[in-house]
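Exercise 7. Predict the joint structure of the components listed below.
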Amino acid sequence: EVQLVESGGGLVKPGGSLRLSCAASGFTFSSYSMNWVRQAPGKGLEWVSSISSSSSYIYYADSVKGRFTISRDNAKNSLYLQMNSLRAEDTAVYYCARVEMLDYWGQGTLVTVSS
Amino acid sequence: QSALTQPASVSGSPGQSITISCTGTSSDVGSYNLVSWYQQHPGKAPKLMIYEGSKRPSGVSNRFSGSKSGNTASLTISGLQAEDEADYYCCSYAGSSTLFGGGTKLTVL
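Solution:
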């Protein structure tokens, strides 16, 4: 059974940093591209970033480019999102999701940016 | 990176059919056969319902179908059931990015 479990969310002050993790199981993690998608409270879904299976291709939404860094460790079956210079508008539930079609999603981790 | 356009809400009675549209551009929906649709119930993670425009993942009811014409994709739900009430999002691959629609709230009357 495919499972994706996010962690690392919490309350952080504007300008602060946070690192999210996504632990994958039930499939050959190293063979699949991965994504981060977020959802602000009461709002719609927003794609944040994607990374190819070997980390050769990495893409970001304009809204996070230069502040967020996606990475992965295939040996640990884990996906990461380093978030720096956080703003109030980054407050959201962050989901990790598998491949371009986003076929499997985790349960999400809440990031709150507030002073 | 503009969002795809969906109606904010649609409604229908049990047993009826409804269609949700998703309008993009020639750079996203119109260029790739990579439109997907997600169902999201309150407090839950999104669930893939349709991928590559019209394909259903294993386990998704055949009451759900997808299509595309030009820059507009559509999701049709036939034989509406109470449990179909949820938010629905379209999504399109757009080269170096992925775009979502703003979401459509489906109410089953």
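Discussion. DSSP finds no helices and ten strands in chain A.
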